[in-house]
Amino acid sequence: MHTPVALLLELGIILTALSLLGAVARRFALSPVPLYLVAGLALGDGGIAPVPAAREFVDTGAAIGVILLLLTLGLDFTVREFTASLGRHRFSAVVDLVLNAAPGAGAGLLLGLDAAGVLALAGVTYVSSSGIVARLLRDLRRLGNRETPAVLAVLVLEDFAMAVYLPLLVVVTTGGTWSEALTAVLAATAVVVAAIVASGRWGHHVGRVVSHTDPEQVLLRLLGITLIVAALAEVVHVSAAVGAFLVGLAVTGAAADRARTVLGPLRDLFAAVFFLALGMSVDPGDLLSELPAALALAVATAATKVATGWYAARREGAGRRGRLRAGTALIARGEFSVVILGLAGPTQDRLGAVVTTYVMLLAVFGPLLTRLAPTRPAPPRKKRPGGGRGVLRENGPLPAPPPPDSARGAEDPD
Fold this sequence. Notes:
With 414 residues, the chain is mainly alpha-helical. It has helices spanning 5-27, 33-43, 55-74, 79-88, 90-110, 115-126, 130-139, 148-173, 178-202, 204-210, 215-235, 240-250, 253-280, 286-289, 291-315, 320-329, 335-344, 351-372, 407-411, and strands at 392-393, 396-397.
């Protein structure tokens, strides 16, 4: 078997560059995500050093990267606890939709876009990047924070909303009728509900299947099952990332601990490739033409995401600093925005330039704002007695959250 020399050389240079950028970020206690995105901007089409031979590998690796990020994120939680969190955040989902889709829809009208363009831009400003947020929570060691269940609930509810939104966008973009749009929405909703029920009732069998003393068997079994579920999720128009997250939720106890250890290096490799690919999807030439409009939209929707996170974290009983951390964590936009642009962009003259500039601004500066949000070092995380894991603080299990109006939720310094 002959391997192209150009592919090996370009991949070697890419991985070496990512290693150096990661070392620089760690040196200054930053997340490497913004640096990976800027590197992708330089290596993509229209950049200063394109890598055509490695492009196909990077695009494929990016899809695997976001799946692994959400899989390992799901391993930190249980179906029962996360379902309860989703139930608490029904109103958070409504607040998220209203606050963040409205600016995009309004901007679309001001830019003179048609109905499909307005709907597309509303989706772009509504949905945060699950991949970027998942990496940030891990980089900044916030998985055990009180506000983290609120952040994850908002993300997953957004991803489920995308399962309904994307078929609707396809129908509107292709000029379909309202009856066709309604049929697509109802079918997607039924699939989402079925996926949640199936995960809750039969998901525990996954943990039994992947359990093994051999790390190689754990890796092959869990990754194989996850990719199959992710593929099936895409077939029925549910995000592959959501499918991977549900698999992670289904694996509990010692099996989850072992899976996290085995998957860690592979996740970090493909996560870096995902952020690189996201940067490579943007043509630098598009960043200047619509910069004022994109910048105004980015500032407005960064503020609305902070408000969304603040509201959602308050429902978890987090204090002011925790609410601010939750809000800044949700600012970044990414993979879904690129998908939306791919569906609607070819029929819209201005949409492509606005969205690419907007996504790049928030994908780079969102993680920086998240890093600057007030925090404090936490003690090492401890397991829950009895081997469970669930949603924990870094120093033990979370107590039940107080009602939204309680004094604890308003005064907790975290």
